[in-house]
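Quick check before the chapter quiz. The format below is the same one you will see on the exam, so make sure you can read both the input and the output lines.
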Amino acid sequence: MSLSPAKSGSWPLRSTLLSLTLLSAQELTPISTHRPTQGINSNLVEPAAIQIESGLEPRVTPTFEPELVLQPRFGLTQSLEVFATIRFLARAKNLSSLSFSPKVKLFQRKRWQLALAGSGHLTTPRGEISALADFFISPKGVLTLNASFSTGFRRAPGYFSTIFYTQSIGTRFFAWVEAFAWWPLEYGAGSGLQYLFGKKQISAMDIAFNWQTGGTLQILIGLSRKGYLFRAPSNRKGS
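Here is the expected output.
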């Protein structure tokens, strides 16, 4: 059955979404998203690729102020990428945090890999450094460890750590359990689910439910999409 122009109002929107892949996405590796505010996956975006990650983070508190997060990731080399994180409050539309950070893959073995991410916040005089490690427990299970230290002018040092275990369920569903601690502020536990769209797995959606101290419930909803920044790199050497 063919669609007439009057009945195909969703087609321009679909075309717009497809154009967000930038160019050909046939050579892109499967997407591996960050979890907003929780941890940074040590997998890197391949060279010449850009991955856009966004998230909504409502918290059940007396002063309910959802935060929106936008994070583009740019692949530079096989072991280096840069990413910017923009956070702002939805109610007042105030910019909450803006940072520009590099991420380097330090070591990679058959069963594990280690990355280092340094972060410098532009809106607050605070520095941060994070160490990340992925351990491939099984063909379908990955354990991710993240430890970070942050301090700044007239600020007490902060320590943040998180542990993820991610298990694939089929080819598109991934479920994870997590435990995180942020001393001296808070600690808690949670779980999440990731769904990969399409056969090429170049877009994904994350949903997580976290419980923190004080009975605070935090819900993270993320949406990611990946494509090439300029054009797909040629594979003449490998062909």
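If your answer matched, good. Residues 1-8, 13-25 have pLDDT under 50 and may be disordered.
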